[in-house]
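Hi,

I'm pasting everything inline rather than attaching a file, because the server keeps stripping attachments. The sequence lines come first, and each chain or strand is labelled.
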Amino acid sequence: MVLSELGNKISSALAVMNNTTIVNEETINQLLKEIGNALSLADVQMSLIIQMRKNIMAKIKLDQLAAGLNKRKLIKRVVYEELIKLVDPGVPAWKPTKGKPNVIMFVGLQGAGKTTSVTKLAYFYKRKGWSTALICADTFRAGAFIQLQQNATKAKIPFYGSEDEKDPVAVAKKGVDIFKKEGAEIIIVDTSGRHKQDAELFAEMKQVEQAVKPDNVIFVMDSSIGQAAYDQATAFKSSVGVGSVIITKMDGHSKGGGALSAVAATKCPIIFIGTGEHIPDLDLFNAEGFISKLLGMGDMPAMMQM
Amino acid sequence: FMKYFNMLTGNKVITKEELSTVLQDFKNHLIKKNVALDIAEKLVDSIGASLVGKKLSTFQGINSIIKQNMEEVITRILTPKKNIDILREIQNVKGKRPYTIVFSGVNGVGKSTNLAKICYWLTANGNKVMMAACDTFRSGAVEQLKTHAERLGCELYERGYGQDAANIAGDAIEYARSTQHDVVLIDTTGRMQHNEPLMKALSKLVNQNNVDLVLFVGEALVGNDGVDQLTTFSKSLSLLANTTSQNVRTIDGIILTKFDTIDDKVGAAISMVYSTGHPILFLGTGQNYTDLKRMNVKSVVKSLLS
Ligand SMILES: Nc1nc2c(ncn2[C@@H]2O[C@H](COP(=O)(O)OP(=O)(O)OP(=O)(O)O)[C@@H](O)[C@H]2O)c(=O)[nH]1
Ligand SMILES: Nc1nc2c(ncn2[C@@H]2O[C@H](COP(=O)(O)OP(=O)(O)OP(=O)(O)O)[C@@H](O)[C@H]2O)c(=O)[nH]1
Ligand SMILES: [Mg+2]
Ligand SMILES: [Mg+2]
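And the predicted assembly:
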């Protein structure tokens, strides 16, 4: 399972706590150090780790004062809560409305997996009975339109794009108009890859956003990304109205922490993870299930009750 | 960063304890620059070991000693031990047979784009270059390469999708021989490094065709997964090696892409070279044909220590 190594590390750090006879400041510090190392190995942003350690410390002290709870259980629960906070910003994910056009715009760094994921998402809704459509507003990358065309054709989803039109804003606008008229419910706009260092590309992204007025903007991020994740994600978020995140390539070996840092940056929920190159390889994301699995703790929600 | 080092100065012997705080901060600094965790640890440990018990002069504080040490160590790491002169190697076989280069790596890192940049560079240096479309899987991959070939005025060998990449590469090389091409640039499908069947297919392509140069394309954005990607690709090349062949095939060199997207978080360069010794032959610094640079070791070291 993805992230299992990180999970193992954290679980074994927690398991050590079960066996130590004394739980004091020193043992807690040692535990937090080990968890911090595990998270760092998984590319979680250093400042987030430091913040998380502080939060855990503060919570443990407060709760200890409040009641004579079992310290080990308490520590486990606090760690669990803080990990959840890392992947779940606590805002509900945007949901499309039936019977009206819902325009969704995809943005992200070069090669993150946008074009692959637009078809995956359209296919996800199509199977649930929504009428869907795809638009290629990437007029820059060589072969971008044909890539989307081939995927859309495979998934039997209507698509729009042009090999001659060089203006992404014009293509996006035209495509959305067409599919709105046709009564599509889910209209997904794919855009070129871009990065914060290129102001022109960011300006172009804003123009596309203004032209198609998306109901949701989805930020796509590669799970293997390292320490640059936070800055890039912050830049996207402050430039367009990012509302959700999709993390791709979770079938690989990376631990996804860089991408999780991006969630902290955007304060947006992860809605799906990409788990392969084929069209059905898209899984709904659930923060609690994710972290429970990560820690090898099937019964975590039950533990929360204590 | 320098502020950490002003704490410990003076005319005295450095003890382990004094060093460890400074080195811990230094390790965190490296991690923030996207150096992989274990590589950061190894770097810091080796520097620590070389300093314990050393005497400081009044004029040289621990700060400048460590910085100088680090600078030396990292410069040594990044300076290639064996240099590959691609232009010369091509020259050596010119007129006898085409020189063959394979571009490999995980999904979306920039293999095809940087293949096109290399094509531009080799053509500008007076070579007759051909591309071989051996990504027969990803939608639009063939058309993507075709677009680049047309723009660059070079020939493309392709047989569409779904067929055996190793065989197409072989036919492409044969074709290039008969048409007096000097170089064949072989594009491959992106694959996750632990996908055994796909790694075997890559090994087959490389060994069956006895290619001259195997490049690993990795992105500078990658976090802790980068080292595993590179080492696993390198190892996997011999999965289906000729049993009679004496030398074990490994990756010959690295192209580190998307260097324009990471600001000063240059750590991936250090992690990859440190763990394998494979040289970084080029940096990808953008999406245009001229965005291919030699690595400037000095400026990378400067970014890392800033
Ligand atoms: N293994 C795996 N590969 C994926 C996944 N999602 C996308 N990919 C692959 O990643 C590569 C890049 O995907 P694209 O969809 O072209 O990425 P993009 O963001 O549209 O790229 P640009 O348009 O160039 O910015 C392709 O080889 C995809 O097949 C995933 O979940 N798992
Ligand atoms: N900013 C930047 N983008 C790059 C660089 N190199 C490649 N890209 C972009 O990265 C994206 C993916 O590039 P490709 O060449 O298609 O990557 P690939 O490795 O061939 O992808 P797959 O074949 O799908 O595995 C494209 O949008 C490229 O324009 C670079 O050095 N800098
Ligand atoms: Mg795309
Ligand atoms: Mg490619």
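The radius of gyration of chain B is 22 Å.

If the labels don't parse on your end, tell me and I'll reformat.
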